[in-house]
Amino acid sequence: MKYYLAIDIGASSGRHIVGWREKGELQTREVYRFPNGVTERDGHLTWDVEALEGHVRAGIEEALKLYPRIESLSIDTWGVDYVLLKGDDPMLPCYAYRDGRTEAVIEKVHEKMPFAELYRRTGIQYQPFNTIYQLYADKLAGRLDAVTDFQLIPEYLLYRLCGVKSHEYTNATTGGMVSAATGEYDPGIIEALGLPKGLFQPLQQPGTVIGEYKGIRVMLCATHDTGSAVEGIPMEGDQLYISSGTWSLLGVKVPRPITDAGSLAANYSNEGGVGYTRYQKNIMGMWLVNRLRSELCPDTPWSEITAEAEQKRFDHLVDANDPIFLAPESMKAAFDARLPHPPKCVGGYFRCAYRSLAQGYRQAIEEIEGNTGKVYEKLYIVGGGAKNQYLNRLTAEATGKQVIALPIEATAIGNLMIQMKEDTAC
User: Are 262 and 197 in the same domain?
Assistant: First the structure.
């Protein structure tokens, strides 16, 4: 029996999952789980990458206790965020994408290269936290002086294990600097912004073995978690998907990027997949309800929250992608600011959030079908949000699609499948 290890790290937690094939079926076992979250440092939101590395190593030790021989391991996380390096030394802090440091530089970036031109080149949707804006903020702050490398977070953690620096394709595309035509960093963008050219190395594909750690091959999966999640969805043909977690990533697989005017207007992203393009949009996702819960009713079970939301009759909606919801001090206050009048009870806030998400999904699907010229019958939902039956029902009603909710660890499964596929190919 051959065993493989997927380390899947999200914005709120991480997990180590061992996988193997038995009688032709993929079997998995979670062997370690740990918390994650942004920390405030000097007025900025940051990631504690030293703690993340400690958990990564501790989880590997737990896996080895149970499975002394592991063929390979890989790590996936969220996209866009990175660690700067001077030689082998990290230059901290590692800023989190919800930090507001890019707000002052976005217009300056677009003065160097208008967003319409950036989109034509990359096909990546506008997000104020994209890597391109973060790196330009670092440039203006002098943080790029003498920097020799930058590593997106999963690649940084893999480097800390095996000592090899890598730049994985699917993750790199999330940052808004990879050419949709060539699949490599776009030299025109780098030159226009005056960024150090040496930071942008050739991109490597999922399945590449980059090193070794304690006798385990260290491999690149689709290190952007949604890239791995889409690989882990057992879809019948090309259908719609939502990877539902802190963010809801809604999209379809397409053979090549779609960077036309309709896609630009709808702010659709063309992110790298394993042999295809993920034509998708970021929607604020479960972040809305998670923050509401932590503020209004942290000890109330989700089953009670959704039951109360179903019973209420508060029917006003908000735009789930309104920037006001990105990192508010108070999520309740953010909802109040966008509603004609606030709900009279806690359940009303959750009803508003869930119904607003469902309407956001409907609008996004209409945009996809308009821009691809296809009508899709099914919508697959994976990730933590797939467990929310109330939201699934609202989504089916709003979109008219057959919703197939799969409360599986799709990201870890995709991570494992990429490792196993490449091992079989060898």
Answer: no
